[in-house]
Structures are given as C-alpha cells and as structure tokens.
Amino acid sequence: MKNKVHPYIPNMVPEVKEDMLKEIGVPSVMELYSCIPEELHLKNEMNIPKALTEYELRRHIEGLLNKNVSADEYINFLGAGCWQHFVPAVCDEVNQRSEFLTAYAGEPYEDHGRYQALFEYQSLLAELVDMDVVNVPTFDWGQAAATSLRMAARLTGRKKILLASTVAPERMKIIVNYGSPELDFDFVDFEKDTGLLDMKDLKAKISDETAAIYFENPSYLGFIESQGAEISEVARENEALLVVGVDPISLGVLAPPSQYGADIVCGDLQPLGMHMNYSGGQAGFIATRDEEKFINEYPSRLFGIVPTVKEGEYGFGDVAYDRTSFALREKGKESVGTQTALWGITAGVYLSLLGPNGMYELGQAIMQNSQYAVKQLNKLPGVKGSRLTSPFFKEFIIDFNDTGLSVETINKKLLDQKIFGGKDLSKEFPEYGQSALYCVTEVHTKDDIDHLITSLQEIVTN
Amino acid sequence: MKNKVHPYIPNMVPEVKEDMLKEIGVPSVMELYSCIPEELHLKNEMNIPKALTEYELRRHIEGLLNKNVSADEYINFLGAGCWQHFVPAVCDEVNQRSEFLTAYAGEPYEDHGRYQALFEYQSLLAELVDMDVVNVPTFDWGQAAATSLRMAARLTGRKKILLASTVAPERMKIIVNYGSPELDFDFVDFEKDTGLLDMKDLKAKISDETAAIYFENPSYLGFIESQGAEISEVARENEALLVVGVDPISLGVLAPPSQYGADIVCGDLQPLGMHMNYSGGQAGFIATRDEEKFINEYPSRLFGIVPTVKEGEYGFGDVAYDRTSFALREKGKESVGTQTALWGITAGVYLSLLGPNGMYELGQAIMQNSQYAVKQLNKLPGVKGSRLTSPFFKEFIIDFNDTGLSVETINKKLLDQKIFGGKDLSKEFPEYGQSALYCVTEVHTKDDIDHLITSLQEIVTN
Amino acid sequence: MERIQRKNKVRDFHQAKWNEPIIFELHQKGERGVDIPLSDQAVAAEVGNGVSAIPEGMLRKEKPNLPEIGQARVLRHYVRLSQETLGSDFNVEIGQGTCTMKYIPKINELLVRNPKIMELHPLQDESTVQGMLEIIYNLDVCMREISGMDHFSFQPSGGTQALFAMASIARKYHESRGEAEQRNEIITTIFSHPSQAATAAVKGFKVITLHPDEEGFPDIEKLKAAVSERTAGFVVANPEDTGIYNPRIKEFTDIVHQAGGLCYYDQANANGLLGITRAREAGFDMCFFNLHKTFAAPHMCGGPATGALGVVEELKEFLPAPIVEFDGEKYYLNEDLPQSIGKVRAFHGVAQTVLRSYAWIRALGPDGLKEVAQTAVLNNNYLYSKIQKIRGASAPYVKGQRLEQVRYSWEQMAQETGVTTEDVQRRMTDFGLHYWTSHHPYIVPQPFTLEPTESYSKADLDEYIAALEQISEEAYENPEIVQDAPYNSTIHKLDEQDFLDHPEKWCITWRAYQKKTKQPERI
Amino acid sequence: MERIQRKNKVRDFHQAKWNEPIIFELHQKGERGVDIPLSDQAVAAEVGNGVSAIPEGMLRKEKPNLPEIGQARVLRHYVRLSQETLGSDFNVEIGQGTCTMKYIPKINELLVRNPKIMELHPLQDESTVQGMLEIIYNLDVCMREISGMDHFSFQPSGGTQALFAMASIARKYHESRGEAEQRNEIITTIFSHPSQAATAAVKGFKVITLHPDEEGFPDIEKLKAAVSERTAGFVVANPEDTGIYNPRIKEFTDIVHQAGGLCYYDQANANGLLGITRAREAGFDMCFFNLHKTFAAPHMCGGPATGALGVVEELKEFLPAPIVEFDGEKYYLNEDLPQSIGKVRAFHGVAQTVLRSYAWIRALGPDGLKEVAQTAVLNNNYLYSKIQKIRGASAPYVKGQRLEQVRYSWEQMAQETGVTTEDVQRRMTDFGLHYWTSHHPYIVPQPFTLEPTESYSKADLDEYIAALEQISEEAYENPEIVQDAPYNSTIHKLDEQDFLDHPEKWCITWRAYQKKTKQPERI
Ligand SMILES: Cc1ncc(COP(=O)(O)O)c(C=O)c1O
Ligand SMILES: Cc1ncc(COP(=O)(O)O)c(C=O)c1O
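Output (structure tokens, whole complex):
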C-alpha cells in the first residue's frame, strides 16, 4: 500500500501535494532534490522492515521488552553510578506532561513555565548543595565533573588535576576523555582499609601547577570521605581549587561539600526522581559560588530572574549568554546543546515534594537499611559485610574472598533467587579480590534484605 | 506518628490549625462536631490498616495486581458485552490529561474545552449512527437501552415493551430493573438456527399498547439481524417506536439502525477507545432525530453550540436544561448525575482518529478475522465453528456438543494454553447445550487464532 | 536587582484560549489519524473481503461522514481543549460544594494504568483475577468499618445509580413482604440531592419532600406527618446541602422504621464524618458513598465513577449481583443473591475507581481518615467565618453547626447592586477559580455552595476568599464589571438568547448546526 | 441559529497565565509533599538511628533550606507551569529551524513508560536485558542502512556530545598513527551548528571556519586553501543551516581525505535525506543523527537525548564502549574496543530515546522514511515560496536548492520599519506560535530559520504564514504593535536592563535573589 497516507505525514495526500507543487512551481517532489548529484542518490531501497501499524508495533516492542527482567520484578542491589530509589508519582506526572515533554528551546515568553521550572530547579538544588549558583543540567556526573575541572583549570590558569583513585572508573574515563589533551591528570592513592584519600600522597603530589583536586563523597566505593576539610586546606594552601562530586540524595544528612571547602560541586541528579531507565536517567549538575569569575566559566545555560514591563510578573532569561558556544562557537566556554533539562525539572519537583524533612528522613532510612544489611552480612561465614572500615552511605563493598567463591558465581546463583547481586569489583579494584559493590536504599524492605541474606547463606554454605 | 502532617492534608499543621480555630472562635476541631449527639460518635478506632507511604502502597497494590493475568498476556476470546479492541495511544493520552481527568461540572467558561470535546463527541457519534442528536454519555448500554425504552413509553404514552429474547441477559436485567414497575416487558422468540427474530411471534405479540420493540444488532449472540426493515415496518404499523441497540464499532461496515427505521438507537461506547478495565470501560449512548418531542424526553445532558458576545467564538451550553432532574428533581425526566463523560470524550478522539476509512477497514478486518476463525474451527472434529447460520460480525457461538466435552472443561484446558476461551452459554442459552460465545477482533493475529485452533484440536482429540 | 513587587490580592490570570475550530472543520480528505491492524494476507486469502458476508440491506452504503485528520492534528486539537478545561489539579476547587473536590493522588493514577487492571476482561476465570477480587473485597471491608454496614456492592456507577439501586432494593424488599403496592411513597428533603427524589420517581414511587424548619433543620414534625403505611422509605443526606447536620437523625430513622419504611442514607459526600459517626448508629439500613467524592477518585469530566452501596445483613440478598466474597482461600464472585434486584450496571462496575479508593484509604489509614474529616470541617468553618464578613454575603439558617459545606447567599448583594450569583460565577473564572451556584430549586436565594475539603491549605482558602471579596467590592462599585464577565476565560459571555431552548435554534451536533445554518452537511 | 462567523486570519489566542509564585514562596512550615518509606522498626532496633555513623564534621548541621509544601500544591504549581510552556504537541512548531520539530508519536511514549525499560539497571546481567539489547541492536542495523556506516554507538546523549565523540575519535585516530601533535586543526563552516566548532576546540583542536561563497555554498577554493598536513578533520552539516545542499560534497571529502584528515558529517538533522542520499556515498567516515530530531524522540525541554554516532568499519575500535553486538544467539555488550576513546557518557546512553526511534522507524518502514524526507522537503519549499512574497522578507543566496529548512531575513523590513527579528519573535507568541531567530553569528542579517518537517499539514503552514504576513503588515503600518509585543503570552516583555549580564544584578537562584534584594535568606 505504497500510497496510503501515513498518520504521521498529513501532506502525503496526493491532491494537497499537487497544490503545493503548483505553488512551488515544480512538477514533482524529486525535482526538489535535483541539487543532489545523481551519483549520490541512493539507488536501492533501504533494507528496513516494512511499516507496522500502531497495534502491531505495540505487540512487537512489548514482545521485546517482555524478554527483560526489571529491577522491580527482582530485588536489585546494583548501584555503582545508577541507583534505584523511590520515585514519587508526581515526578512522573510532571515530566510526562506533554507540554514539558515536547518543548525545546522556546523563548522566555511562550516557554515561561519551562524557564521558571528550571530556575526553581537551580534554586532548590542550590539549597541542597548550599551554594548560590547551579546550572541548567548537563549530561551526567562524569561530564559535569570534567567540566568542573576544566572550569577550575581556566580559573587558575593551571593544567594539572589531582584525582582520587577511588573516583568511579566509568566517570574517570569520561573525565579523562573530556579533559584531554588540555588537562594533565594525576591520581592520588587511597587507604585500602578505609578508602580514604591518602593525605600524604596528596601532599606529595600537589604543587603550584595544580588546578584542582577532585574526589567524590560518598565515594564510588560507598564510604564517606571524612577528610573534606583537610583536603580543602591542602588545596587552599596551594591555591588550587577543590572540586567535589556528590550524590545529592545523601545531602539530607551529609554535609554539603561547600561546607567543607569545595569551590565547585558536581554530581548526578538521577537519584532525585529519575527512574533508572537502563541509564537513561542520568543528569549532571555543577554548583558554585555567585562570583563573576565562576559564572563566566560555565559552559551551561544559567537562567536568571528578571522583571517584565508589567508590575508583579516574574520573567526569566539567560544570564551572561555571551560566554556560551551558542553565542561564540569555538570561542565560547566549551560547548552546550541539548542536555538533560527535563531531569532538572524533575529533580526540582522531587526536592519540592521531599522538603528538608523528607530529605533528612530519606538519608536516615538509607543509612539504617544499609547498616542493617552489613550487620546481617557479617554473620555469614566467610563474608565481610563491609570490606572498608569507614562509615558508608548507601553502598559498601562485600568481601567474598573467604568464601572461596567468585562474585561471578555468586551473582549467577543470586539471579536464580531473583536477586541482582552487586557489581563485581574484581576487575576495577583487583586489590579487593572477589568483592562486590552493593547498594541498599529506602526501596529495600527488611524482607528484601533478609532474602538476600538467606540466599547468600545458602550459596556460601553449600 | 499520629501527628505527622499527611501529604494530602496540608492544614494538619498545628500552627495553621490554631490560627484557623482562632478565626472561627472555637478551641478545638472536635468542638465543631458538637452538633453530632454524643451517642452517635464512633467510640472505637476503625479497624483499617495503618497508613502506608506512597512507596509501600505501590508495592502493596502492584503485589495484588501481579496476581492477575491480563488479556494482553494471554490470548483472549471473551466478549459478551465487553470487548478487546485496539486502543490508539492518543486516546489514552487525551483521557489521562490531568485537566480532563480531574474536571467535573464546570461552567461553559472555565470548562470550554470539556464542553467542546463533548459536543464534538455527540457530533461524531451522530455521524456514525446517522442521527442528529446524541446525548452526553450515560452509564452503559443496558441503562441506555432502559432509558431509550422509557423515553419511548413516554413518547407513545404506552407501557408495553417487546424485547427480542436474544438481548444480552445481563442487559436484560438492567433493562427490567430500570423499567419496572413502570413498564411491562414481553419477550419475542427467535429462530434457533439463525438467531433472527421470529417475525410471526412479533406480529402476534405487538398491539396498540406496545410502546416499543427492542432488539440488538449485531446481537449478543453475534449474528447480524437482517430483518431490520421488516421489524421497523411492524413497529410503524402499530405506531410503536423501534429502539435498536448497536455495537458502534460495527458501523463502519454495517448499516446504522436509523437507516432501517430505528427511532432511537443506543449502545455501548466501550469498543471505541476504552480499555476493558474489568468492565470499567462501559459507557452508554442514546441517539435520536432532532425533534422537540424526542429532545424533551432525554434525561441526559445535551450540549449545544451557541455564539458568545465576541465574534468568532464558539460557546456551548445545556440544551433544554429544564427537562432534567437537576432542574426539576422528581418532575424531571428520570434522573441524571455523574455518568461516563470521559469515555464520551475518548470515543470522540477515537472516531476523529479512525475517520471513515479507518472505521471501514476496522469492520472489514474484524469480519475477516472472525470468519477465518470459524472456518478453521469447522475443521475440528465435533466442533461447529458457528452454531448459527446467519452472518455474524465479531462474535459467534461455537458448538462443542459433539465433542462430548463441557465448555467448562474446555476453558480450563485452554487456560493452560494461555487462552481465555469464550463465554460459556450453557446457562444463559441452554437450548444450545455446551456452546460458547467467542469474540474475534482486529487484535487477533492469524497466529493467535491458529494457536486457538491447535489448542482446541489437542483438547477435542485427546 | 530590585525586588519584583507582587501586590495583587487576586490572581493575574488568563486561561488558555486556542479558539479551536470544531473537529469537523479540520477535515482534509485523505489524511489519516491512525492505521488499524488489517487482517493477515493469508486470512484474507482464505475468507475474501469479509464484508461480502453482510446480508442484503445491512451493508452500510456510504461511509460515515467523519472527518479525516492526521494524528498530530487530532492530538493537538484535544490537548488544546484540555488546557481549556479547569481540572481540579489546576485550581482551588472549593467552589463546587456538595461535590467534595479533593486532591486526586497521582500514585493512584499510576496504579490504574497498570495493564493488569486495564486489560482485564470481566468474565475472566476467577483464578486469573484474584488480585482484582482481593482489592474489591478489601475495599468492601474498609467500607464496612467506615459505615457500619455489612456488605457492599460497587456495581452502581455513580451516586445517582446507587440511589436508584437503593430505591430498587426498597421496592423489592416491600415486594418480598407483600407490601409493594401499598408502600409507594419515598420521603426525602428539599436540601438533599435532586437524584434522591428523581431516582425514587424512576422506581415508581411517589416522592414526598420535606422542607426545613426556620433554622434549616429537617423538620421532625413534618416527617411525623408524612409517614404512614404507604411509606416505603426515607432517603436523606446528613449534613444536607446546607452543611447543617441534623442532630435528631436517629429519631428520624426510628420514626420511619416504626412506620415500616426503610431508611437509606445519601453519603455521597461523607467527608466530614469519616471516623466520627456512621450510618449504622444513625439507624440507616443502607447507604452509599461516592468514591469519586469522599474517596478521592477523579471526577473525569463527569464519570465513570462509583456509588459504593452498603446494606445491613438483612438486605444483603437484595444487592445487585455478583458481590465479591472470600472463602478463606480464594476470592470469588457470589451470584447467589436470591432476592437480588438484578443488575444496575454491566458486570462489576468501574474497577479503576475501586482500586483508587482502596489505595487512598490505605494511604491514609484510620487516623488519616479521621484527619480528613476534621480538617474538612475545620476548613469549612474557617471559610464560613470569613465569608459572612463579606459585604452582601450571608449564610442563612442557624448559626454555626456546619460540617463540610455551607450554602451561602448573595441575596443582599443582588438586591443592593443587581449583581446575581450567576454573575459572580462568571467573574470568578477571571481569577482562575471555579464557582458553582447550587442545586435547584433556589430555596436559598442567590445561592452558592462552597466545600473546601481537607485538600486545600489556608493560603488556598484565603485566595478564594480574596476573590469573593474583590467581586463584592466590584459589585458595589461598578457592577458591570461583574455582569459582563468573564474577560480572562477561554471564551466570553455566552450570547444565549434562546439558542439552547428553542427547537429551531438548538444544535446538539455539528450536523444539526450545519443544517440549521444551511451549510452542506457532508464534509 | 445563525452561523458563528470566524473570520480571523490569525488565531485569537491567549496562553495560559497563572502568575505563579516561585516555589519557595509556597513554603508553609510543617507541610509535607510526600512521605518516604522509613526503615522497618526491627531494622532501626538493630542499627539505631543510622546517621550517628556519620563521621565528625560530615553530618549536615542544618537541614537544607527547602520549602515545605503539600503534595497537591506542588503538583498544582508544576502543572500550571507546564501549561505555560508551548510544547510542540500544542503548536505548529516550524519556527525552530534546524531543530526538526516533528510529531512525537504517543504510542512511543506509552512504550517507554513500560517498567521493563524504566526499571532496568544498566549493569544487569545480559541475560536479563536481552529485549533491551535487541532493541538497541535493531536500531543500529536500521541506522547502518540509513547512513551507510558500519557501526553505531548510542552512548552520546545529544548532538553536541556526538560531535565531541567524533572529535575525540579524530584525535585518537591520528594519535594511533603518531600524528596527534601534527594534526591539530579541524575545519568547519560558518553555517554549521556552533557545537561543531565548539567541541573541536574542547578536544584541543584549532578551528578553521570556512565562509560561503556568494550563492551560499561552502567554498571549495577556501577548503583547498585550508587543508594541509595539520588537518585532522573536516566537519560539516549538509544541508547547512541555510537549507542549501552542497552538491560538491564528495569533492570536499575527497580533498580532506587526500590531505589525511577524517570527514565527519553532522546529520543531527537528516530529515530531508532519509532514503535519498547517505553519508557513506558522500565520502564521510563518521556521522551522527540526533534521535531527538530526525527520529522523533521528544525534545524534553532540552534533553535527555541521543546523538547516534556511526562510523565506518575502520573506526569501529575507536567507538566509546560498550557497543551492542549479536553472536547469532544472544545480544551482548562488547567492551573490547582496543582504541576506544573511553566514554562520553555513563553506561549505555539514553535507552528510552533509542526505543522511541526504533519504534518510529518501524512505524514508517523504508517507504515511510522516504516519504518523511520528501514531504519535509515539499513543505519547506512551499513555505519558501510563500515567505518570499511577504513584504520585507527574503531568503538570501541562491534561488531554490533548499531542502528541509531555509534561513530567511527581515533585513529589508528592519531597515524600512525598525522592526527586528527579535520583535517578530515576541509577536509570534501572541498567535500561539513559536519562532526562533537563528544561530549566531547573524551572517544573514535579521535572520529567522524555519523548518516545517513532514509533520505539518498545508493548513498548518498556511496558519504560520498568515501570522508572518500579519506581522509584516503591522510592522509597516504600526511598528509599535510588534515592538511592544507580546500581549497574549504568559508574561509581557522582559525588562532586561542589565539584570542578566551584570554580576551584581543577575540572580541565578532564589537564594541569590533574596540576598541581592536584601530579603531573609532562610524561608
Ligand atoms: C449528596 C449527593 N448525593 C448524590 C449525588 C449524585 O451523585 P452522582 O453525581 O455520582 O450521580 C451527589 C453528587 O452530585 C451528591 O453530592
Ligand atoms: C545541525 C545540528 N548540529 C548539532 C546540533 C546539536 O545537537 P544537540 O542540541 O543535541 O546538542 C543541532 C541541534 O541543535 C543541529 O541542528
């Protein structure tokens, strides 16, 4: 049925086409392609399956999706950069509103709501991280960290970056790729039993060429880096900037890095109301003080509040637009484009819903649940519930070395128990041998954790 | 945590309560209940489980729902008054829009959109049934039929109603309950092998006391009643009205009852874009000619188009509001209240999407698929694919008598094959013995039907 | 930066206005909104074109005169219309007294979109719907606690249908005792919902309507005078539309019972009473709750909905069948109700509403439900206090004693300024607020009924009050402002003339409009 | 009934205006938006209060200064803001040229709300995500057909990131050949998207920007002059922003290849080319498609999105890992790309977008995709023809030869009336339409770029044209009307002064605004 008008293409109607061609003054649509040289015209039909109707499509895609097992069917202990948290239904309602879903880059007039929602997002996250400036979201934590470090380099006029070796390996790859060849990276050791930054090594490596120190808190390995103030002190002594990556969901109970001296804070919004979406929920943020020199180094859009000609109206617009690559191309600060605005709006909704008390209770519930898990794990033969001795937030390393089993084996068996076991660390952190990074949050009930314990008990004792 | 402020009840905040009580001038909220005599106060706490948080609630309800098996997991051949059809995603998008979802009984001003959408629904359905007036939807087909017949009684000043005995038994119960004690019902026989109305019996039973004849087309048993014009003739001769119930999804290919003489047409909107929802998708409609005497007998709301004081604006309002029970209580026409408006809007969206060609193709696909099923069924030993010899639309009676198996047994075995077999007719129509009413629509692929055939083959030959 | 001054007392509002054509005007021959799944070619090869089976005379000759429109344009049309509709998610929806407009939790909407309810067929084998049946059963059990009744049916799909079902039960009950002919009167009150009277009449009863005493209470003496051996039943809301609770309700039901009638309670709106007082103790034999009111199911532009119908044990067998029961192991549909009135609606009623209300109850728990009631009453009394201070407004009848709603009056303002309650209604839309006058008849002159429910904060109530104050000021200073309103709504004042009441002028469908305005009928 | 006359050429429109406060102004101490699941009591009994484990100095001392607001009010705030946002579902979104705003099929949105994608963790065992991997793989295969490339990565989460990834590959490629130091220049054109130049610079390249010849074509002589042994790569869109297709593109890529550079193609917007011509035949080594443009994923206020990155076989090993492959039995993640640039984004990119685009392609099939291209080009040329007839408007450069978009100019109108393209932009919102000027720099003076895509009907285009015509008339008759616009938008003209560019005045957060306007900072 080659000529059936497709529901998505109204002007396929032959009579309408006719009319329009007449206005244009050409005999056929292909005429309009005459600018493309004959030899570049695709001769064959594309080898793509024939069109499906909506119903067929639905059955086809749902058939494929049904081959997946989701983290709400099984019990999931995977984290490591993408975390399962409670998503309030209002978050989904708002980000599924077709106005927000299909808007793009409108002006402050017809998209007033988008501007306000993003300004509010900036403002809410600013409270969480206790800083005065937050950007319109960027891609993800890794990219936000890379940009933060590039900003630091521009701000200090230096090129050397010191990274904690506990930075998430995936993020490290992003940071290095975004940073090179402009920046030089060096890695600071950590204490194997606590995970904490090796202050001696830090002091040995820092110099007056250091642009910034970067660490994460809570770290990739879950522990809380408690030396924030000391690290900041070292940075300050060397006139380097301190950049800290943070899981914002911890900030109801953990001190925000600004309070222990961070100059730039970055992290991922995914925990704040985004479903995991096989990693489609990531979104990065960057926060700084409200100082001109910082603002001028942001590549991102920054929405500011302004009056309109009518009393009482709030308006919004782009602050210091002329620094962006939209305005200046390669002379702008790095680059900007489509990023993750809808997740920013959603994170704003999330923070509005939870408020100060919700964020506190949430942090508390996560810590209680994860501590409970570790306590129970410690009772299992050959299992160390937490390999590290430092306090942790929601993630922790389970050490299976003494069970004689590999993480791979354990995870396969857990799968039979409808459990997604934690991330195998044996490649990324071979120093911990057969260990795995587990994540426990507020979504885990006592029963869920107990089911893990019983299943592991079975596995390690058989 | 008795005093934690609930997210749904903002004014639980103690300080706010305090303030408000001060304005009111009473010391406590319970004071405001002093009008309720002490002995009527509930003394004990209600035996209802403690509050769940949103996440707990979600797990609880989803846990319950997971005990269900839905008709898109299994292959479903049940119809009999609730039918599985393709629902375009746009229908869901529109009826899930929070404006429509949460609106109620606003005025033509702030709810202009609701009025227009319902006026358009009326107008679109009017084209489908080829009549000039359609009401804002009522509860369901049964109730719409009952009201149609009561309208006919008031219009004719008579009380006797002749019903085809093939009217759906469930609907019959509704009709009789809504009709009694005001109306007298009598039942007209049908021909066992065709399902068609027994014209002799009709002629014998009709009289100058007959207000209306009612039959359904396609009938509950699936066959097409081809004697519409003759029945209409009989009605006219006796100055009775002809009321016909119709499955509107058939009207892309079947003649609408108005074209063979129906005075009032009624039916169910559920096929036009409503999910089955365990019967939550039902909605009734009534259609008539645009004659004052008909309009005046509608109990329902009827939205009409009017100008506003500004040129070029369409406005809408209630036509002949004073006939309703809202205006006149027991002196109004029957009763009106919350009915099924959102399904009316949805049916309008559905008809706008399908248009004349979609409705035709749909009718055709249904007929082809159901004919195919019957043809294959006929090949099975002991199975009569269609017990009736008349042409049918989407439903048909499979006669299993010669297999020696009961429908109950067959359906249990089909369930093992992930098939919901058709409705067991052995109680409602004992004259057909072990027979079942099957429904085949556009949602059934050839594979689905073939799977039914293979499964039945297995069952009847083992 | 200077602070942006926001001094408006009322909201500087404009509703979305798209001025959309009627859907038929979007027709473009050849466009398609959606493709439907055609039959497999192998199927068509087997059976041919399918429609040739249609008997002589039953084939539709001309395709229906529906518009042809691309999918994006259909969507655009309807989402624009949606923005022109003031759903309760968007406003401080307290102007629709008696309708109990409350917050519709989004989690519940998410739950009802689960295919495991959306795609259930009502005739599925019970083994495949145990979860659904359990939800229905659980809600039944909660409802019993809330009301003191013994069994619930969720088949009635609205308050009006529940009232009809109760009238049907009353008739059947008296029939079962051989008194159907004799007992042909139902007593109600004028401040009860019109459907009480209307459904009694549908069921063939004579309706006796009691008017209140001077203080606004149902008049017990009038009830005594009304009851007799013809009394089939008594139906009432309490509080009635006025928000006044009848403290002598138990005496009322006793009187009716003594006369041999049944008492049924319209608890469509029980929002001020949850956990406080119940139908059973007040002497009722039956009651119903509108799940779409008190129990937080959305109103959906007017349904689908549920009137949850509860009865005492003795009336169980009269309920519409089936009801859901539990045998200790599994849930099942009990069709065995020997005196059943039959059915009022297809299958099992509106399952989504049942799920939503069950979820809402579980989100609140027993304490929360009681807080709902208390806060609804607090909010109402706050409003009551404030509104009586507005120039030209009053709340007729006894002072105080209002539970969840109040019927107010602009009688004084209308007399002094000529501005009517309908004018106020239109003007309120200019501030993004909805305002309903009241049920007919207007016993209270120039009426309006407000019900703030528990869902609105003090700030919300203050916003609503400020709008009423502003309108009162306008009425006294410049009444035309109010009379010519609205200005900020999607459309301007209707030019009704007799377009809605004259058979030659009303147009209930586009085709009727085309005919009456002499346009070609087919697009 | 008299027919209601609707004579407006432009829409009688008003956008929703709620004048909402900033969310912090809705704070009421004690209110709660949602309850989160607390730990089980037994858990708390085991471990205590949990937070006491936080090391000295790392405990947050004061709770974050977030507002406390009930759930209904939070929702109401955000849904009101949504109505104040002109999503493409609502308008004739052709005013955002280069952005390929097209119909976003609702079926795809329904599909991505399936928990079987929403609730997948990216590190799940491959056996538990076979369906997801198959979707990704299938899209890869379709993209290969459409582009002629050999492998795709969906990790880049936007066009800009895809451009960055391509610049990274270029660097790595030359590194692998020991030419990283030497080859440090990327050549692009001024009418290509700013991100091409910007990302090349991020990756440490020197950017050489070619300007067009008089007819608007990229200038081949300038390219020849630009290439050298320092050339790392050449990146270009074709058509560029002007909509003009460079017919000599193969010569361009040949020249670059001869100089030893890689050629990468910005196909963010390939809407006019689907099934017509491909990157491979034009000589490119890499290309990317914005799934949120050509392939019908929604723009979501600006992401999340996907820049689908395709490369020829030789460059496969440079792709960001992992990519999805199929071993004949199962789908798996291939991490083994020895020269991989590493990563550009966490895990696998935005899976929802991949699903949506795959669904869109399957809904169209090969014929449909070609129809998309042809209709997009037809629509664009219709608009092009019409707009050139509007007083004061023009389309600089060569006549004709435009594919899917055109960069227009109001230069003449600005000179004659003082009305600028920014004025027109604001005025368009009064008719419910969006209009974007163009990318900087304004080589074309007073520019605007329109791209009608295949999604809009002739009637839609005519509505857009009518609005431009009306504005042109207004500009010539009464320019203030245009200059003081908008009037029917959510807000009025911004009073920008230097509020956005002066450090003491800009306020990027509410707390900064509170400080700068001397308000208490904590709520
Ligand atoms: C007290 C009362 N009774 C009955 C009804 C009728 O309910 P429904 O609209 O669901 O038919 C209502 C609702 O309007 C009501 O408030
Ligand atoms: C041609 C072209 N290239 C690159 C981009 C950048 O894409 P994105 O906005 O996804 O970063 C765009 C979109 O604006 C574009 O149109």
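The mean pLDDT of chain D is 97.
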